[in-house]
Amino acid sequence: MAPQLARRLRPHVTYSQDYVSLARRHVPLSHPLFQFRQADLDASARSAAPVAGPPESVVWLVPYFSHAAFGGIYTILRFASGFAERGARTHVVIFDRADADVVALKHQMVASFPNLADATVEAFDVDSGSPDALPAADAAICTLWPSAYVLLKFNRAKRKYYFVQDYEPLFYPAGPNYALAESTYRFGFTGLVNTPGLLAALEQRHGMKGVAFVPAVDSRYVAPDVRDDDGGRVRIFFYARPSNERNAFPLCLAIIEQLLDRYGERIEIVTAGSEWDEAEYGFAGRITNLGLLSGLAAVSALYRTCDVGVVYMLSKHPSYQPLEFMASGMATVTNRNEDNLWLLRDEENCLLAEPSPAAMAEQVGRLVDDPSLRGRIQSGGEATISRDWDTEVRRVWEYLSDGQPARA
């Protein structure tokens, strides 16, 4: 890393040792939500007895969201919509924001997933609300890890499931937040897990049983027949999010610095994923930072113009970026991560490197210097992805319909 860049870097997020973030508010770790005893675990296990047949009603415990079409909430709602399409009455509980505008959130949900038009939505008050005041259901599904604490004490569901989309303890350094997040994997819920690698990690480390699904890619991510030549410049995209440690923002900046020093006008660097000021890091006029994009249409339109996509993922889920890069015809470069090798095949559908910026920059450089390699990796990526979300939703629905219970 260049010395001047090292001086510019400073942490954007610090993790308090006294608080855990629940979406847009903070709840002290002494809050009753996080207090439980063995009797609570026993009562939860007794309440979720084996039941056969498809669930006729499902309660979803989800975090507050600003955009229904982004990230993890989009996948959650996709499955809720698929279950509703198959006959399940759907009740969505915003578990972490009592003042949430549920009418506006319902409008967003239905705009993306019309099958949720008959869903009911409520906001839960963790300070004064009782979990058992929520409506009884055949199945209840928690999502973001703090919602597992609500589900633990919600004993009016015949089955309890945990919709896991990443190894969320790794969102924090070792400490109280890590411990509370990790504890939820021992609550005895059955996992509905985003990717086989993540399910394998949960089963190996915590004994969690469940079913995995493989993320498909929205049909809007389609590789163009011919990319614009832009004077021979190679357009390189970086997923750059200062507030998410698992995306290694400082390492991305170091790679960008090295690539610009080596290739200059032969490349164009574009970043997106979060708002930040490129001038603050000495990149004003040297890169194009698009910040947080407005929606899937904008993201897919951008990706289809890029030749190479670079993303770090330091937890046990590959994130959606490599899948979307591949579907859009980009050659993907990401860090080596054993939990994601079920998807990422070095020299076939991507290039992998150790997380060192020099190692990552070397792999990107190979794609700049060798158009034939770039084309081969692009083709391998396109052949990897699936656009068939319905098959994944059906697999999970059939698992629920077999009456898979939470484990005692």
Strand count, sense and closure of the main sheet? Answer: 7 strands, parallel
Q: Within the largest sheet, what's the order of strands?
A: 5-4-3-6-7-8-9
* Structural class label: alpha/beta
Beta-strand content estimate: 15-25%
What would you say about this model in short?
This protein is α/β, with parallel strands linked by helices and 408 residues long.
Report on the architecture of this protein.
With 408 residues, the chain is α/β, with parallel strands linked by helices. The chain has two domains: 19-216 and 389-401, 3-Layer(aba) Sandwich (Rossmann fold), CATH 3.40.50; 219-384, Rossmann fold, CATH 3.40.50.2000. 34% of the residues lie in helices and 18% in strands. It has 13 helices and 15 strands. It has helices spanning 3-8, 38-47, 71-85, 102-112, 146-152, 176-183, 196-206, 249-263, 296-303, 321-327, 357-369, 371-384, 389-401, and strands at residues 19-22, 25-28, 57-62, 89-94, 120-123, 137-142, 157-164, 190-194, 210-213, 234-239, 267-272, 288-289, 308-311, 331-335, 351-353. The strands form three sheets. Strands 5-4-3-6-7-8-9 form a seven-stranded parallel sheet, with helices on both faces. Strands 12-11-10-13-14-15 form a six-stranded parallel sheet. It has a two-stranded antiparallel sheet with strand order 1-2. Strand 3, helix 3 (71-85) and strand 4 form a beta-alpha-beta unit. Helix 3 packs across helix 13 (389-401). It is elongated, with a radius of gyration of 22 Å. The protein starts with a helix and ends in a 7-residue tail after the last helix.
